[in-house]
Amino acid sequence: MKKHLFALIAVLGILPLDAGDFVLVRNHKPQCSIVLPENDNGSGVVGTAVWHFNQTLKTITGTTLPTVRKAPEGNRITFVLREADSLLTVDNYTLSFPDSRTLQIEATKDSVQWAFHHIIREFAKAEWILPETCGLSYTPLTDLAVPMEKVEVKDISWAISRIHNPGTLWRKFNYRPGLRIGHDLTLHAFPAEKYKKDNSWPETIMPVLNGKKITALPFPENPVNFWQPCYSNPETARIAVENILEYLEKHPGTLGLSLGTNDNSGFCECAECLKLDRNNRGNRSESYFTFINRVLEKVCEKYPKLTVSVFAYDKTYRPPSFKLHPNALVYLTIDINSCADPVICERHRKIISEWGSKAAMLGVWDYSWGYPYPAPRMYAPYHLDILKFLYENHAKAYYGECWVHDAFEGPKQYLISKLLWNSEQDMQKLEDDWYVRCVGKKAAPYLKAYYKVWNDYFTGAARKTPWFRSAWNVYMAYYDLSSSYGLEEKDLQAADEAMRQVVALAETDQEQARAALMMRHWQYTFLRLRMLGSAVYAPDGSISSPEQALRLLDAVAKYPEYMRQYREISDRLIQDPAIRTEYLNKYYMKELGSPIGRSFDQSVGKHILAASAFAGQPEVRQAMTAVAGDPDQFPLMRQLCRALSDPAAQQNLLPDGNAENGIPPMAEIHPELRRYGELSITDRYHAEGEKSFQISVKGPDTLFWIQVPANPDTTYLVTFKAFIPQPSAEGYLETNLYAQRNGIPQQYRLPPPLKLSGGIWQTFSVLTSTRPNSNGLRLRIHLREFENGDEVFIDDIRIMEIGEVSDK
Q1: Which residues is 704 bridged to in the sheet?
Q2: Cα-based distances in Å from 645 to 278, 568, 608, 614, 650
Q3: Region(s) of the chain under CATH 3.20.20
Q4: Where are any strands of DSSP class E within 319-403?
Q5: Residue extent(s) of CATH 2.60.120.260 domains in the chain
Q6: Angle of helix 489-505 relative to helix 509-532, nearest 10 degrees?
Q7: In Å, how far are 84, 156, 416, 687 from 447, measured between CA atoms?
Q8: In terms of Cα–Cα distance, which of 332, 195, 222 is closest to 785?
Q9: Helical residues (DSSP H) of 141-262, grouped into ranges
Q10: What CATH number matches the domain at 667-804, 2.60.120.260, 2.40.240.20, 3.10.129.10, 3.50.50.60?
Q11: Average pLDDT, stretch 721-728?
Q12: Interhelix angle for 380-392 vs 412-421, to 10°?
């Protein structure tokens, strides 16, 4: 009988209440009040935490707890708020019971939320597993009580900071921003607001660049880029100390700040800096961290608990020969997916160990992007192992650069958040629990199998693609769509079969809602992969048979229907109020960090270009003709198929685009940017023939352009090949094709960044249509954020007329 009673209790969501329990809810009715602090009107930090707790409580039990100003006679939750004096203890909290009617939360304003989350997680047995509205996993309860036993939570594993980009509500339940890490020298050490307006930057701090001591910043409007102060000069440190102390005096209670290097290199080349760095221009750690130690020795005399974040990034990635000041927290910048390569993984582990012996505190800037990747970028074994290894080497702060985070990558962010709170946990058990919580016991093995497809791919076959060449870079080339070229049809079938089982076996309303969400994300992923030619191209991005050409043309033929379905799913996803703002974030959309609003014209157009190599085969030409004649097809694809079904007949409007006859008169570096680049002809690298165009980078912003005559109301296609011997840490291309009249551009677009994988020629294409009064075209190949001395090679530039704009 007793056994059946407990079974009934479990089904009804009734938790037995012991005499020693502090009752919050009974029979869906509140049995307790929350006494707000005197200085919180309900909209402060504590009031906000109370509101979130109450909303979750209402979802689980059907009621909220009333908030009051004075303690009532019945049960009450009260607060003892302490001021945080160190980032290491901000998240600590205590639940205690001074009397039988009082549950007392002792916490900082920031950790009140964790105390409430403890009640939800430990006593209501609920969990926030996804950012979407359906992301709370819970069993509806009639009653909720807390055992009257003291709970003290401290020693959080990554205590100083745990944060990633998106600002969704889900983040508040799982992460907390504590310590900023950024390129912040011009915020605190050398404040731009003090020096920028009248260019009064102290002469002492200015670096020597290209043999001359600069007197103004390379880009005055953007003071964090392309320069570093003269780190070797003690006077530079003195000025920084003076400014930082002034800032701290004006901002009492500051527990941490950042002194991360400026971005995009620009390290000082004076004799003393180079001497400190042993003339190694690729490793500037000695000079930078000498400066950091000098600054902290003085600042921390007055502020001994201040935590200061610094960058181990690009040229400061390796540790110096000496130990750092104990208040310095060193953020290592790592794309952990690169650890799928054993050699790279060992390199990272070695550097982490070295840093562990030089710094009292470490952090990580984790390039953990899902989007813009077309499929879930899962590499959990390496991801969690490296984070644990960092923790073992004194890591206490985490920053994840991931842009939009939704159900696309399943348990990825959830597991990271749990590891950051307690790195001693059994992560495999947590992962298995997540699958069960998400879609139920029956469906869980299939959801796990679905994500295993992507774990296996991004740690296995993806290594054969051009994209993986960027694994040696600071971060991997997230815009490089060749990341999906190692997929095979069997991978897509396995993912589809697993997800169908998930939907079929989910049982409760919650499980079915999340299973339906997961299916939408799989359908979304499938459409992206089809439009990108995944499972058709060889891992190197080539095709070698008419059969592959026909499969690409099949994707072209289905492109309008694929896009209709893609937009339909997009419209469905942005209806979720919990994540809508992130999906529609303009920056994320521009950077392809959101899946919303994307166009796949360039990728689908590339399929036509690739297939045109086999246009001599009757079945391929027939497929291209069918697309060209399809009234439901996008006009651009019809034009491309019509024009390229006989590629030999296409006239190149730039006959010298292969560099064999020197630099064409219409090709040049932008006159105002020639100080940043030089154009020449070389035979060192070439895609075809024996020569190519070489652009030697001498600064941060080099623009190569070509101008040719053009007809009005006409569509043009440009293709070219680009090559760089080794990947650039930050450099990328932006390519645009503008209509113009009498040399004046008539169009402007924001192009996506194009990363060069290194060691391989890559083909790029761009299209435009001229206006009724246009008489020219301008091809722009913009080299951005490359370093002085980088060389980029361009070859086989083809400019082709595709058809009239009015052509239907």
Answers
A1: 669, 781
A2: 59, 32, 9, 9, 10
A3: 192-425
A4: 328-334, 361-366, 395-400
A5: 667-804
A6: 160
A7: 42, 30, 19, 44
A8: 222
A9: 169-174, 192-195, 234-250
A10: 2.60.120.260
A11: 92
A12: 20
Strand-pair category, 776-784 with 762-769: unpaired
H helix intervals, 371-443:
380-392, 412-421, 427-439
**φ and ψ of 546, to 5 deg:** -60, -30
CA atoms within 13 A on the CB side of 304: 1
Select, from the ranges 452-456, 734-738, 740-744, the one with the highest average predicted confidence (pLDDT). 452-456
Query: Torsion angle of alpha carbons 735, 739, 742, 744, nearest 10°?
Result: -60
Burial degree of 214 (CB within 10 A; 0-12, 13-18, 19+): middle
Q: Per residue in 572-616, pLDDT tens?
A: 999 999 999 999 999 999 888 999 999 998 889 989 989 998 999
DSSP 458: H
User: Left (φ > 0), alpha (ψ -120 to 50) or beta: where does 759 sit?
Assistant: left
Reading the block at residue 769, the tokens are 């249509």
Residue 702 — φ and ψ, nearest 5°?
-115, 125
What's the per-residue H, E or C state across 696-720?
EECCCEEEEEEEEECCCCEEEEEEE
Q: At what angle do helices 546-557 and 559-573 cross, to 10 degrees?
A: 50
Q: What percent of the chain has pLDDT over 90?
A: 76
- As a CATH number, domain 2-155 is 3.30.379.10
What tokens were used for 740? Answer: 């113009």
The pair of three-digit structure tokens given for residue 87, joined into one six-digit string: 């980032």
For the chain, residues classed under CATH 3.30.379.10 are 2-155
pLDDT of residue 806: 58
- b/e 22-35 (16+ beta carbons within 10 angstroms → b): bebbbeeebbbbbb
The answer to whether the peptide bond before residue 372 is cis (omega within 30 degrees of 0) is yes
Q: Would you state the pLDDT for residue 673? A: 60
Question: pLDDT tens-digit profile of 177-236?
Answer: 889 999 999 999 999 999 998 999 999 999 999 899 999 998 888 899 889 999 999 999
Beta pairing partners, 669: 704
Dihedral pair phi/psi, residue 444, rounded to 5°: -55, -45
| Pairing outcome for strands 677-682 and 692-697 | antiparallel
Sign of the dihedral defined by the CA atoms of residues 592, 598, 604, 605, in that order:
negative
Q: Which two tokens stand for residue 726?
A: 């080794």
End-to-end CA distance of the chain: 78
Which residues lie closer than 8 Å to 744 by C-beta, 6 or more apart? none
What is the 3-state secondary structure of 462-490? HHHCHHHHHHHCCCCCCCCHHHHCCCCHH
As a three-state string, the secondary structure of 123-162 is HCCCEECCCCHHHEECCCCCCEEEECCCEEECCCCCCCEE
Q: Write out the CATH class of domain 192-425.
A: alpha beta
